[in-house]
Amino acid sequence: MARKRKDILILADSTPGHARSRLAADLDILYPDRVAKIDFTATRTTAASLAPYACVITEVGNGANLPRLNYRSVTAYARQGGQVMSCLFEYAENRGLRLSKTHVLDRVRPAMQIDVECDVTRGFAAGDRVWWFGCIENTADTRYENQMHQRQVMGVRESDRVRILATSNLNHAAVMIEEKVGKGRIVALDMLSPGRPYFNSHGATNKYLFLANMLGSGVRHGKHYRKRLSYDEFVDAMADLARAYPDLTLQNEGPCSDGRDMWSFSLGDEAKPTLYVGASIHGWEWENSYGILRLAEVLAEKPDVEGLDTSRLHFKLMPIQNPWGHDHFTRQNARGVDLNRNFDCAWEDLPQVQDVATPWDYNYQGARPASERETRIIQGIVERHRPVCVIDFHTADYGLVRPYRGDQALVDAIQANVKARLKDRFLCQRPSSGPFQQVNMDYISKPAGPRPYLIDYAAREGAAAAFVIEMSGNRDDVHALVMNVDTVVEICLAATQECLVGAIMNS
Ligand SMILES: [Zn+2]
After folding, report:
1. What is the pLDDT of residues 111-159, one digit of tens each?
2. Which CATH number does the domain housing residue 417 bear?
């Protein structure tokens, strides 16, 4: 096998400390075998020595080392077509601008407001805000949100060559700048302050997203949503989408456990093989619902997305399968039942984890099979449409849970497709203080069950590929939504692609 060329260069100083090693360690996870490191205090760079790299990242950890960074060589590299991501300090110093570092002691969380929609800010709309700050080293920032800091550059003059991509919510100074230099460019962005993307960090979750966008491997279908919507607001958003795209039909599926109606999208000819996608059956696993909302938009806007003939399929999408739990941030529905233990499939065989099972127990399965309205509505959809593929999105960790029966080769093909799509895209810490890893679907379970889960019920009713996707989530804010949304859409497109080439379509 040919050895991959290292095409990303980090130019950093040898300051003992956390920042440089942290950045290098993260990039080694995100772009395995692609990252070269040069200590600019020991090795003088020239435009020619930088030329082989596709991207150069500069990071001066110790201000005293600044004179030893040959910024002229970095600029000359850009002029010849190079892509540079430069931290704000050295950019400001080399352009005669003033660096500002703001410490926030309380109440205001530092953010960047996106001002320009371009390749680097892909996934965000002008006016969107994303948290962007540093905190105490090696500490989850949620614990020390009274000690945050953010760097900005003051006095940037915009021109044909220079534009401010994002500004600070604290002082309106520039947080992200793009300077076109010859055939290339320098994007100035602080990679020093934000820490590692801790599982539920605010300031650092999207730290590598803009770099990935610059490299062309970042956001493809993801989108930021500005706030976590209530169920009723979410249904309004679904209705707005259905109004904008006449092919997208909003359907009332009837009342759930709190009396409110459940709503789904239908897209395409119902006589065609159905792909059912649902999320938030455990109500607090809410993020993926936005991915399904986005999927509906992508499919309605471009039925031939990626050259796929999606008109050969019928899509049934239920972004929120547990409205009450979604609103109240619970696993269960309004009656304390874990809906994904309530399906009429081997219900009697579910092991009891409590001596006397009662509502609100973690996995409380209900008084009898399909005792819950939500369960019966979803079972009814499965009965009516007999989907070939069922994807049930959850959040816990990363992984794919196989159905107990069905076309395992098709499930394998979908997983392989998902893995290829997600490779070298996003970095995240696994939940519960686990290691940092790429956001992927490398893990797949062995067939087990049947169990009173939606996927096993669907598999028993003939779905060729019914599976659970576990993603990270249950966060307290929308700061990770671009990543979740992008990943959900990729996974659904992978399933669509494999269903279209699979034997199902020809049988
Ligand atoms: Zn779940």
Report:
1. 999 999 999 999 999 999 999 999 876 555 556 667 899 999 999 999 9
2. 3.40.630.10
Confidence of residue 18 (pLDDT cuts 50, 70, 90): very low
Task: Give 3-state DSSP helix, strand, coil % of the chain, rounded to 5.
Answer: 30, 20, 45
Q: Which residues of 104-128 are buried (b: 16+ CB within 10 A; e: fewer)?
A: beeeebbbbbbbeeeebbbbbeeeb
pLDDT band at 4 (very low <50, low <70, confident <90, very high): low
The arithmetic mean of pLDDT across residues 326-335, rounded, is 98
Neighbours of 277 (CB within 10 A): 28
Q: What is the pLDDT of residue 1?
A: 44
299 within 8 A of 497, measured Cβ to Cβ = no
237 C-alpha vs ligand 1 centroid, how far in Å?
A: 24
* C-alpha 396 – ligand 1 centre gap (Å): 7
Report the domain count for the chain: 2
Q: How far is the CA of 286 from the centre of ligand 1 (A)?
A: 10
**Same domain, residue pair 181 and 269:** no
Long-range contacts of 3-6 (CB under 8 A, 24+ apart): 3/33, 4/33, 4/34, 5/34, 5/52, 6/33, 6/34, 6/35, 6/36, 6/53
Same domain, 61 and 185: yes
- If residue 492 lies in a helix (H) or strand (E), which one and from where to where? helix 481-501
Residue type, 62: N
Contact 221, 486 (CB under 8 A): yes
> Rounded mean pLDDT of 261-277?
97
Per-residue tokens: 397:
């960790």
C-alpha 501 to ligand 1 mean position (Å): 30
Query: Does residue 503 or residue 430 have the better pLDDT?
Result: 430
Which tokens sit at 239? 């209705």
Q: Across the strands, what pairs with 393?
A: 279, 469
C-alpha of residue 324 to centroid of ligand 1, in Å: 15
- Per-residue pLDDT band for 310 (boundaries 50, 70, 90) equals very high
For the record, the structure tokens of 222 come out as 């993801």
